[in-house]
Amino acid sequence: MPPKSLKDRLKVGPVLLDGAMGSLLMDMGLHSGQPPEEWSMKYPERIGKAHQLYHEAGSDILQTNTFGASHYRLKECGIAEHHDLVNQKAVEICRNYGGDSLVSGDIGPSGLLIEPLGPAKPDELKNAFNRQAEILEDSGVDLFSVETMIDLQEAVLAVKAIRQVSNKSIIANMTYAKTDNGYFTVMGNPLSECVNKLTDAGADIIGTNCNLDSFELIELAEEALTLTDLPLSIKPNAGQPVLEGNTVHYGQTAEQFVDGMVEIYKMGIKILGGCCGSTPAYIKLLSETLKEH
Description:
Blueprint: H1 6-12, E1 15-16, H2 22-27, H3 39-42, H4 44-57, E2 61-63, H5 71-77, H6 83-97, E3 102-107, H7 122-138, E4 143-149, H8 152-165, E5 170-174, E6 177-179, E7 182-184, H9 191-201, E8 205-213, H10 218-227, E9 232-237, E10 241-244, E11 247-250, H11 254-266, E12 271-272, H12 280-290
Parallel strand pairs: 1-12, 2-3, 3-4, 4-5, 5-8, 8-9, 9-12
Antiparallel strand pairs: 6-7, 10-11
Helix pairs in contact: 4-6, 4-12, 6-7, 7-8, 8-9, 9-10, 11-12
């Protein structure tokens, strides 16, 4: 059995995250616009099956089905009254179906813009993240993931909120676009600023997920390595989505995705996974390929 803590696992080799959850759930019947978090209550065995598939593919860390389970996201879906149960059940399912994989409490963006650009007040947003983190901590997660953040201010609030209730590892992932001047979030935050402020907020691992594919993130990985001594996490998309009829396809095959990830791994980045478009087959191939390196 592999060592149980993230720190111990990093000492013995690469640590694999899971891949996309939404596409798996859609294959199981999730409708477009339906909140995946609701399925933790309605169809726990389907959520469990998704975790099981990633565990069997080689994922060392599984993220709970709580990406949109903060108060404001659940309020938008009309199920805010089930906030605590949704988060508790998600941890329980992940633990029950995920074998010896570590369970990471997943926290995504609120979906709101922070004032003056939008209605969200920083203190209220932090309180919402704090409540979600508290439930995840009490439910027994091994670590936390903050991901798909496009606003650095919101990401910092989330990290600080977690740190108030837990001393466990926090992976903080921003989502970037690649420009002629470097990597920036949609809100205009450069990579260097994100690394510095997330570190100051209490993140233990800095990274990125979503939007860009594995080859597009090679240069980001190179730059990030010059900005911090903290472990880095990279979770690319499997290319850009292409709509064909009612089906969404992504631009990178599993082989192409893994080719880019191997280059990133060779730089010394050991925490690797997939975002939109990646499946258990992508993670399985990544796991098998890294064993050869």
